[in-house]
Structure formats: C-alpha cells, structure tokens
From TrEMBL:
Residues 83-248 form the PorZ N-terminal beta-propeller domain. Pfam families: PorZ_N_b_propeller, Reg_prop. It comes from Larkinella rosea. InterPro entries: PorZ_N, Quinoprotein_ADH-like_sf, Reg_prop, WD40/YVTN_repeat-like_dom_sf. It comes from the Bacteria. This is Transcriptional regulator. Gene3D superfamilies: YVTN repeat-like/Quinoprotein amine dehydrogenase.
C-alpha cells in the first residue's frame, strides 16, 4: 500500500477504558516523518499487548553505585536520636525508632569515602567527620538527627609540608578545642570557628616523628598513645605542646598495648594482659578490675568498657557475652542501648542481654580478587586469592552474592577460605565455586554451598562447556602433573596433563580448546590444550609462536564472535582464528586505536565482553570501554573523573540481564549502569525505565529485553520520528533528545522495537514530564 499516514494526538474512549489512535492521510509535502501502515500496525499492537513492563530499575544506565562493606565498622557516634557509623569504606546512620539504616556517600555531598573518626559536637548540632586523607567534614543535623549542610576543611589534607599519611585516628575535646590524633602528630581544631589553631609534630624522643593513635586528658596532663609509646605533657596555657622536650615517656605495664589506653572523666586507664583494667594513680598503674582474659579497652563518655573473648565487661560486671562480638573498635551509649562498632560484625545494638546487628546489607569485605556471574541477576564477589607463584593468600572464608539489588553473605564456618573462581552451569542450574586449597563446591543460589570434591583441593579457574561439564585448572609448578580436570555430567572426574601446569586462568573456545594464561613467575605466556587429542600449543611473544605484545598475560576472554582477547603487561592482542591454533605459524594481531597499538604500555588486568560485544578493559591506570573491534574508544573512567575508588582495576563482571558492570579495585567495589545487556532470544518482558520520566531526571532512558540488533524508534504523539537507534545486545538507550539535540517536551512518546528480520515488533509508550 502506497498511502502514508500520520498518527494524530487524539484519544477516543473505548469500552474497557483504553485508547485508540486515529490515522489520517498525510500530504506528500508535509514536513513530518511519515510511516506506512506497517508502523500503524505495531502501534495498534501496543493497545492489545502487555510486553512492556513499566518500572524504575536500579541499574540505570550511566549511574554509579558503591558497594562498601558495612561489617568492617570502625567508628560510631550518637547524634540526637540517630546512630551514625562508618566502616572502612561505607557510611550510614541508623534510626532506632524506625529500625531503618540509611546509607550515605559522596552522592549526598560528603567529601569522600574512607572515614576514620566520628565525633558529635552536641552543643553545635554538628557531626565532625574525619577521613583517612586528613579531610574534615562538619555535618549540621536537624533536631531529630537527620543530615543537613556540610562544611569541609581541607587544610590538613592539602598541607604540602606534611609528608606521608594524614589519617585522623581519634578526637578529644575540651571547650572549643578538639585535639585530633593523626598519623603525623596532633592537630588542634577550633570547632566553633572551624579553623586549625595549632599543629604538634615530631613529638618523639629527640624530635622524632610519631604516629598518634589517640589522646586523653587526665590528671592535669595530656596523654598521647603513639608509635613510640605513651607520651604525656602538662596541660597548661604556659606549656608549649609543640616542643617535643615537653613530652615525656610514660611507662606501661609489661605487654600492655599503647592502643588500649583510654581516658574517662579525667582519669586514665589501660588494659594489662593477664590482669585486667588498671588506672594511672600517683605516677603508677593500679589494677581496678581483675579480668585475666582482657584483650582491649574501649570507652563511652562516662565509663570504660573492657573487651575479652566474646564478651564486654564494665566496672559493675558483664555487659555482654555473645559470640557475635568480633573485634569491637568503639562503643557509645544512647537511646537506652549500647552501640558497638565491630570490625567483623558491623554495628551492634545491645539492649539488656539482646544483641541486634543493624548494619545495611553489603559485601562482607571490600577487597575481592575475582568477580563472577551466577544465575541471571546474580553477581558473586570472591575474596580469596593467590600469588603469582601459586601460594594462597589465606583471606577470609566464604563469598558474597548480589541478587535482586541486595547482598547476601555466605560466611559459614564450614566454608573454606580463598574462593577464587566461580562458574554457572545452566544444565543443572547450579553455580560451582573453586577454592585455592578448599576444593570444588556448588550451590543452588539459595541454600548453603555443598562440597563436590575436596580431593582436588587447589583450584585457580573454572569453566563450563556447552555440554554442562565443569573444567578445572588445578595448578602446580611441578612438571608432569595432572593440572586440568573435568567433571563429567554423570559425576566422575577425568585428569589431563598439558605441557605446563602453572595455570592462572582457563577459558573454552568454540572448538572446545582450552586457552590458559600461565604464571608470570614461571616464564609467563599462554598454552592451548585440545583434550580430545592431548595436543598442547605454547604461545609467547615470539613471531610465529603467538607474537604476544608481552610474555606476562594478565587476562583472557572469548568474545561473542568467538575471538580470543588477551590482556598483557604491554596492551592487547587478539587471536581471530582460534580453531587454527594448532596449525603452523600462529600470530595474534594487535588492534590499533588512535594510530597506536591498543593500550600499548598498559598492564591489562581485567577483560569482559558486554551484550553488544563491546570490550570493557581494566588496567592499572583506569577502566576503558571500546567498541567490538577495539578501534573506537567509547568511555574512560579513572578515580579522578568518576566514582571509582581506585584507578587500579582488579576484576570486572557484567550482570547479563541489566548490563550492570561491577568493578573490583583495591579500595572497594562499585558498579556502573551499562548500556548493553545480553540479547533476548525473542521479544518478551521488555522493560522501559524510568517511566514516567520526571522533571529532575537527567540520565538515559533504557529499553531492555530486546533481541540482538533491534531497531528502536521513538515517536511523539503527533507521529513524528524523534529518535532512532539500534540495540547494544538486548538494550537500547535514549538521552531524551531529538535529532536536533532538543530536549524532549512533556508528553507521551511511543516506542517501537523491530527485530532485524522486520517480522517481529512490539511497542510501548513512555511518559515524559518536564
């Protein structure tokens, strides 16, 4: 049919409360973009179908999320009727009345992550927040303790004359003066003016530098717990505390840690191992509480609290005895409860004999060697690790799982340490995990993992082949060892002995060949193994034998076209014909970007391919997103231009359904809303979000659940084509601007999705409110 039609902005009521769209002839000279009845047919399809699920997804394209551990809590402060608490990289407050925890971050206006000290200035209704960098935030709060305006002081952080760490460790206040114990000395802060009044450095014997862990005021003296012991000076206006000669060393009982010294109500106490709590009286230490099992000493505003194995004790007796106690760092009393910042168990609320863990959900730690993808919607964070010469790091046991927007911690004592690899097997719908010393495990993504094989103890890498069989790298530096295993679908294991056994990573190509990166400690390079014929091909940086840009291979991935991408200490290489790896001369090619070999000179530490076959490349200096062949740079992220906590990338994983990109760094875990996801086999359950688009939204609208190479058209209610794009895998995005760069106006927009063959199509609508 040659007639062309324009969709009018007209609605007519129909029996079930829906709408119909009227089509009229559009003159040939009209300036609007016209559609044939083919388009109108898909618009009508929208009226009757419910393919589109309208919701606001958490993984918004272009939006960052931090994923700190809230179990490693370090400091706590009672603020009005709220409890503020900070972990190594996280920050939150807890409302005891509502029993709710609220996360806080840089997005809320705070200077950075890495809080080391909290102190509430109750007379000013301001919370002093000290950071590891030396930065200070002064947070104003409401009468109910809600956060308000923030004033930032950067004088310590920016002081060029102070070298090394500027971490703020502790705070003692008298009047308007706050004495900040720092890694380089003591800073006196006027909290009323928000100004640094004085700095005391080099307080050790003969003016040597010292780290100051804490300070205390007692017995007309100021005490400093330092890396050179307990120091004291007379606390009087006539004494120059900046002069090291005025500070004297105070002896401690044998075995007493300087970090167990606390000040309470103008008195000084210390924990003496094997004895108990001692008070400084008349120039000597006197035991005032016998507690032979004492491990440390904390203090509230009014009393000392002694720590022992699984218990807290106060002067009047046992405060708490519970195995949930790990390593208490600070304690405060408020709202009828004691609140403990515990570096292993998070924020604990103690009310009588009842203990409640109240930290928000998050991973159990901040450092992960590997990330992996489980069932759809699940990302596994694996804390274990091993060295280049194949020695276990013996990190914490268990692992963490991100699922449906929440973290779940698997920390049971039955689990081994050093989980370093995981792979999902769609055949039996179980996720398999390998421990570097604890064997092979599996779980159904809900219950505790179960051991599969502990005889095959040391596993560095797992891969699942199309038949549902599990391949294991079980590395060894010794020659002639069986260092590749396969678990058949029926259960038994079979062993193989390729030429080299120092295997760090294993992937499977489309021919069933095993590609392995080898230990740089043992000479580096790669090997390819054919388990059907027991052939091995070693690949190095020599021409004809791989021609890698460097022998040290740090990452491997197979892309959606079956090509093998290799990350080395000198950039990228690609094997574009993996099936021919055993025949004759083999050379990788090096993609060229900006007239240079791709990332030449960079150490490529992580590689992953998204649903659009684009390459996410992690290096020691940042994260890159390139197009499918590595010739076009789409994005670059570093710690300077993004919320990445470090430019050093440890690993990357992409949740396939949403395209959310998870990035592990030495300073913590974050995720980024990617613009590509795994394509769907057919149109079903397509999502458009956010919907409606509200006035304060400035991001990308996503259309997900598409088949590969879907053409997506956005049309306004008047029938004009506003935007057209092609999906990246299963996702297409719209920046809410038309072809001329003009922002979308308030109204209803129609979304058409047409499969590459043109025979399938679905439609939806999107409301925009400006």
């Amino acid at each position: 049919m040659n007639n062309e039609y324009q969709v009018l902005n007209s609605e007519y009521p129909i029996a079930k409360g829906g709408m119909v769209v009227k089509a009229v002839h559009c003159p040939a000279h009209s300036s609007v973009i016209r559609y044939s009845l083919f388009t109108i047919r898909y618009l009508a399809l929208f009226i009757h179908c419910s393919f589109f699920i309208v919701h606001f997804a958490k993984a918004q394209p272009g939006v960052w999320h931090s994923h700190p551990s809230f179990l490693s809590t370090q400091t706590v402060a009672a603020v009005q009727n709220k409890i503020y608490c900070a972990s190594e990289n996280g920050f939150f407050y807890y409302d005891p009345t509502a029993n709710e925890a609220t996360r806080l971050s840089h997005d809320d206006g705070f200077s950075e992550s890495g809080i080391s000290q909290l102190f509430y200035l109750s007379d000013q209704k301001r919370l002093l927040i000290g950071y590891r960098s030396g930065t200070i935030d002064l947070l104003s709060v409401t009468d109910s303790g809600e956060p308000g305006n923030i004033t930032t002081i950067t004088l310590i952080r920016d002081a060029t004359q102070i070298q090394g760490s500027k971490r703020i460790n502790h705070l003692t206040r008298t009047g308007n003066d706050a004495y900040l114990a720092c890694d380089f000395g003591i800073v006196v802060l006027d909290v009323a003016r928000g100004e640094v009044r004085d700095t005391y450095r080099n307080l050790g014997p003969n003016g040597t530098p010292v780290t100051v862990f804490s300070t205390a005021l007692a017995n007309d003296s100021i005490y400093a717990s330092t890396s050179r012991g307990l120091l004291a000076a007379r606390f009087a206006p006539t004494v120059n505390l900046a002069f090291f000669g005025n500070w004297k060393t105070v002896s401690l009982p044998p075995g007493t840690s300087v970090q167990s010294v606390v000040g309470v109500a103008n008195r000084l106490y210390a924990a003496i191992p094997g004895q108990g709590v001692a008070e400084r009286q008349g120039g000597r230490w006197a035991v005032v509480k016998s507690l032979p099992t004492i491990t440390g000493l904390l203090a509230t505003a009014t009393e000392w609290i002694a720590t022992a194995l699984d218990q807290l004790q106060r002067a009047s007796g046992v405060l708490l005895q519970n195995a949930v106690l790990g390593e208490p760092k600070e304690i405060t009393e408020a709202v009828g409860s004691f609140w403990v910042a515990d570096s292993l168990s998070g924020l604990l609320r103690i009310t009588g004999t009842v203990v409640q863990a109240v930290s928000p959900d998050g991973p159990a730690s901040d450092v992960f060697q590997r990330l992996a993808v489980g069932q759809s919607g699940q990302v596994l964070a694996l804390p274990g690790g091993f060295t280049d010469d194949l020695k276990p790091l013996r990190r914490r046991r268990g692992f963490d799982q991100f699922r449906n927007g929440r973290w779940q911690n698997f920390l049971a004592s039955s689990l081994p340490t050093d989980f370093v690899t995981a792979a999902y097997n769609p055949t039996d719908q179980r996720t398999y995990l390998g421990s570097f010393g604890g064997g092979l495990w599996s779980f159904d993504n809900q219950n505790l993992p179960e051991v599969v094989n502990r005889t095959v103890a040391t596993i560095s890498s797992l891969a699942v082949d199309p038949n549902g069989e599990i391949w294991l790298a079980t590395p060894s530096l010794a020659l002639g060892q069986a260092t590749v295993q396969v678990r058949r679908k029926t259960g038994p294991f079979q062993s193989f002995a390729p030429s080299r056994g120092d295997i760090h990573q294993l992937i499977i190509d489309d021919s069933g060949f095993l590609w392995m990166r080898l230990s740089a400690y043992n000479g580096g390079g790669m090997q390819v193994f054919d388990p059907k014929t027991n052939r091995t091909r070693l690949l190095y940086n020599q021409s004809g034998e791989g021609d890698l840009p460097d022998r040290n291979v740090r990452s491997l991935v197979k892309d959606r076209d079956g090509l093998i991408w290799v990350g080395t200490d000198n950039g990228m290489a690609v094997f574009d014909n993996p099936s021919a790896v055993f025949t004759g001369s083999v050379n990788a090619y090096r993609p060229v970007f900006d007239r240079r070999r791709l990332l030449s000179g960079e150490s490529v530490t992580a590689l992953v391919v998204d649903g659009g076959n684009r390459k996410w490349i992690g290096t020691m200096n940042g994260l890159y997103l390139f197009n499918e062949d590595g010739t076009v740079l789409i994005n670059t992220f570093t710690a300077d231009n993004s919320p990445l906590p470090s430019s050093q990338i440890t690993d990357i994983a992409i949740e396939p359904t949403t395209g959310e990109v998870f990035i592990a760094t030495p300073n913590g875990l974050v995720s980024y809303g990617g613009t590509a996801s795994e394509p769907a086999p057919v149109f079903a359950g397509i999502t458009v979000f956010p919907n409606p688009v509200r006035p304060d939204f400035g991001g990308l609208v996503s259309i997900r659940g598409l088949v590969e190479n879907t053409v997506v058209k956005i049309m306004d209610a008047g029938g004009q084509l506003v935007f057209e794009t092609r999906s990246q895998g299963g996702t297409a995005t719209w920046n809410l601007r038309d072809y001329r760069g003009r922002a979308a106006e308030t109204g209803v927009y129609f979304v058409f999705a047409v499969a590459p063959d043109g025979r399938e199509g679905v439609a939806g609508k999107l409301a925009v409110v400006r």
